[in-house]
Specification:
Radius of gyration: 50 Å
Shape: rod-shaped
Number of helices: 20
Largest sheet: 5 strands, parallel
Helix content: 40-55%
Length: 711
């Protein structure tokens, strides 16, 4: 009988509930070169060199997703007289039979079929498997994920085994038939026997050639291949193992010899694990002959040889450079993550008009959490005045059109604060869709400083103009007052004329006082600075205020005893406090309220300067005048220091009071902060720089204050 294998003889069924496994088998076994030979690796170790022989195998693959369906196909194949040679069976196939039950029914239908259990792990030990299905040479186990070469070799070898077994069975039948029918034709039987021996020798020759081919593959593969015993003694390695580490065959005695000392405990743990489990995988460090260390990723198995001894067969791959690259990548990611998280600017990704990703700076600026940001269209954060402009920029950017690198817009925070933002965006792809990566900087403080600078420039211009007018007007007043006084002398006993001239003179004195206020506002009137305890001036002013302010207004004082001494004009400080308190009393005239006055020292250093961005570091005295009146809106607050601006009725004020206050405090190098809200009152915070120390007090013959009466 011929040993030539045809398509019908190489039928394989894959029984697995995962159809992807069947696809993998199709990829491995369809139109592949024959790699048959169970002992190819062993032949490589003996170093035999035989010629190569290659022939093609063709498999007919079939698939069943459950054990019951697979057994039915086995039975149908027997009826068609086209039985399967090999079955790859998954161990777990819910909801039907598991692997063992499937094998049990499968062998009931066809005891001759070869079986390979394919599983990543099993619910049964090998002993339990053999107890259920019996000890047999028709059962092997293939671990998932499997090596394609291993699958190809199993398919080739086991189908070859099945064919040989089938041929042997047929041969035995023929022999028995010939013994019964042709007992006298021994010569013919002998010739047939000699023919079979010749065929077997031919098969063995082909097997040796196949083994030699795979020996060459193992020898030249660019992976580490090593066989060692349970004590680490090296039995065989491939050429790459020797070349990569730089050792000769004589130097490769024991794995302990080229494992760095600090990794010896790890190697001993590996030997223990592989003895217990029969396999091990992980990473191991080898030291080359030149002292360099290589990290090897390995997967090894415990194998029992024909002599009954145990060996460890394994393969590994040098992953040293990969680990270095991964480490460098992680460090790079860490640096960029730190930059992303610590950036004071907002960095955010916008897609379909919604924030998909944002850094902590974004949440700090907008005062929203990431969950809140991602649930609201980005246009909701933009001030209604700038929404159309920003939406146009965003759409143009998505279309790839040319837009300015930076653009400014107003936004609104969660707490309702109006923000001025500078944005720069680039077009990116985020999760497969177009998006923009935005870098947004909060320019609100810069914008406020710009507004303050414009206001200061305007005040300086008005002050210069007012000073010039005041000087000219003062000259005119001098003439008016001089001629009026001379006219009083000339009027003599004319009481009516005298009375009129006295009124002219009285009005001129009032005009001179007004000019004095204008000169103070314009900084053109020299201030007489002297060391003064400001709390005493505040106390004197409060005595006058108590008598003039209605009883419906309650005083709330916080005048600290340790408030320092400053260089200022006492009259001007008295004027500042009287003007502020008079305005506060006017704001509470109808309903009454509380007038709060506080005075204390304030030291601003570099660490807390961010809390007072408008003040330079140094020692300050802070004077605060607050009322619970009607308050002011934002537009009114911006104008209160303008000369002649007033919210009072005509005839109730000149509009110069706060202008004079502003001129006095800025002349002392100080600063004024105003907090006001409609319906909730107003607070003026005055910061005066230059608190004197003890040495400066003695220099000005002013002893440090020990105890001061509290007002």
């Amino acid at each position: 009988m011929s040993n030539q294998i045809n398509n019908d003889s190489r039928r394989i069924i894959i029984i697995d509930d995962n159809h992807n496994i069947f696809t993998d088998f199709q990829t491995v076994l369809t139109d592949k070169t024959d790699t048959s030979g169970l002992d190819s690796l062993e032949a490589d170790f003996f170093g035999e060199s035989v010629g190569k022989s290659v022939h093609k195998l063709t498999y007919e693959l079939d698939y069943a997703p459950q054990g019951e369906e697979g057994v039915a196909k086995i039975k149908d194949a027997l009826l068609e007289k086209r039985p399967y040679a090999l079955a790859f069976v998954d161990m777990r196939m819910p909801p039907g039979w598991d692997g063992l039950e499937t094998i049990h029914h499968l062998w009931k239908a066809d005891p001759a079929v070869e079986v390979v259990i394919c599983t990543a792990y099993s619910d049964y030990s090998w002993e339990e498997i053999t107890q259920q299905v019996g000890k047999t040479d028709k059962l092997l186990i293939l671990k998932k994920p499997f090596d394609p070469a291993e699958v190809a070799q199993l398919a080739s070898s086991l189908t070859e085994k099945w064919i040989l077994a089938r041929q042997a069975s047929l041969k035995i039948g023929e022999i028995e038939q010939k013994v019964e029918v042709r007992t006298r034709k021994l010569e013919q039987a002998n010739e047939q026997l000699q023919q079979e021996i010749a065929e077997r020798k031919t098969a063995e020759t082909a097997l040796r050639k196949s083994e030699e081919k795979y020996r060459d593959i193992v020898r030249n593969i660019t992976d580490f291949i090593c066989v060692h015993d349970l004590d680490g003694r090296i039995l065989e390695t491939n050429l790459y193992f020797k070349k990569h580490l730089g050792y000769t065959c004589e130097e490769l005695v024991n794995l302990y010899d080229f494992i760095p000392e600090r990794f010896i405990p790890q190697f001993e743990d590996y030997l223990k694990r592989i003895k217990e489990k029969g396999w091990a995988q992980g990473m191991m460090v080898f030291m080359a002959k030149d002292g360099l260390e290589y990290t090897i990723e390995y997967r090894n198995s415990l194998v029992r040889t024909g002599a009954g001894k145990y060996e460890i067969h394994g393969s590994g791959r040098d992953i040293t450079e990969r680990l270095k690259a991964e480490k460098a990548l992680k460090e790079s990611e860490k640096r960029y993550r730190m930059l992303f998280e610590k950036a004071g600017d907002a960095i955010l990704i916008i897609q379909d008009g919604v924030i998909k990703f944002a850094n902590p700076g974004t949440m700090k600026i907008f005062e929203y959490s990431m969950e809140e940001l991602s649930g609201i269209p980005f246009t909701e954060f933009i001030h209604h005045e700038d929404r159309d402009k920003c939406f146009g920029f965003y759409n143009k950017r998505l279309r790839g059109e040319e837009v300015p690198e930076f653009h400014f817009f107003k936004a609104v925070s969660k707490k309702g604060r109006e923000l001025w933002l500078q944005n720069s965006a680039i077009l990116i792809t985020w999760e497969g869709k177009p998006a923009t990566l935005n870098f947004t900087r909060d320019m609100t403080r810069v914008k406020n400083l710009e507004t303050q600078l414009i206001q200061a420039q305007k005040m300086d211009a008005i002050g210069t103009l007012a000073g010039g007018i005041a000087h000219d007007f003062n000259n005119i007043l001098s003439a008016i007052m001089g001629y009026t006084q001379m006219s009083l002398v000339d009027a003599g006993d004319n009481s009516q004329v005298t009375r009129k001239l006295e009124r002219v003179l009285q009005a001129s004195h009032r005009a001179r006082e007004l000019v004095g206020q204008i000169l103070t506002f314009s900084h053109q009137k020299e201030q007489k600075k002297q060391p003064m305890r400001i709390r005493l001036i505040v106390g004197e002013a409060l005595k006058l205020l108590r008598a003039s302010i209605p009883t419906t207004i309650e005083f709330k004082l916080d005048i600290r005893k340790d408030t320092g001494v400053i260089m200022a004009d006492p009259i001007q400080i008295h004027q500042v406090l009287m003007n502020l308190c008079a305005n506060a009393a006017h704001a509470m005239a109808e309903k009454g309220g509380t007038l709060g006055i506080s005075l204390f020292n304030l030291d601003i250093d570099n660490e807390c300067s961010n809390l007072f961005p408008d003040l330079s570091p140094g020692p300050y005295v802070q004077l605060t005048v607050a009322d619970t009146g009607g308050g002011m809106d934002e537009n009114t607050v911006e104008k209160i220091f303008n000369p002649y601006f007033t919210t009072k009725e005509p005839g109730e004020g000149t509009g110069l009071g706060l202008s004079v206050v502003h001129g006095i405090i800025t002349g002392l190098g100080g600063f004024i902060k105003v907090y006001s809200e409609k319906g909730k009152g107003t607070s003026f915070q005055l910061f005066v720089l230059g608190r004197l120390n003890r040495l400066e007090l003695f220099r000005h013959n002013l002893a440090p204050e020990i105890q001061i009466k509290r007002f």
